[in-house]
Write a structure and sequence with these properties.
Length: 176
């Protein structure tokens, strides 16, 4: 009698699982792939350097907001505002300042112009960057430095290539 009891349970279990197995096979056959699957997944690398607040290095939330989407995104790419948490380490002593450092990666992003914003010790750091397959996907936000490149404004490539201007001649004193 116990044999019938167990074989009935096995038959019932198979009867319940069979439709699930068939559904999984059918779903697998339908997920053939498309030309969109060949598009790259664009992920930006976020690098943060900020002054420690009271010797503590908390994670930094970086807000990513699309400004203008351009081109065709991979079907898995995000096209809405999102937040990426960057885990920080430290503090380390850098030229007498206690600095926190962290690196993280965004979720897949649709191509286009994106704004990156993070609350750092000296205030909010914000910049806009073109996100594209062959572009610069490295976003560096440093406390006290404007932009995404991490380079001080006076060392920006466009300004570095400009010719230096001659100093202005002092004006003749006015006689009166």
């Amino acid at each position: 009698m116990s044999f019938l009891k167990h074989s009935g349970i096995n038959a019932l279990g198979f009867a319940c699982l069979a439709p699930l197995a068939l559904a999984a096979i059918a779903l697998g056959a339908c997920s053939g792939g498309s030309a969109n699957d060949d598009l790259p997944l664009l992920r930006a690398t976020l690098t943060i350097k900020t002054v420690s607040q009271g010797g503590v290095c908390d994670s930094v939330p970086v807000r990513l907001s699309p400004k203008e989407l351009i081109g065709t995104p991979n079907k898995y790419a995000n096209n809405k505002m999102m937040v990426a948490e960057v885990s920080m380490t430290g503090p380390t002593d850098e030229n007498g300042a206690p600095m926190c450092n962290g690196t993280g990666e965004t979720l897949p992003m649709a191509p286009g112009k994106w704004e990156f914003s993070a609350p750092l010790a000296s205030g909010s750091a914000t910049c806009v960057r073109d996100i594209e397959a062959n572009g610069d996907l490295s976003i560096v936000l440093i406390d006290g430095v404007e932009g995404c490149s991490g380079a001080p404004a006076e060392a920006a490539p466009a300004e570095a290539e400009a010719p230096a201007e001659a100093p202005a001649e002092p004006a003749a004193p006015a006689t009166g």
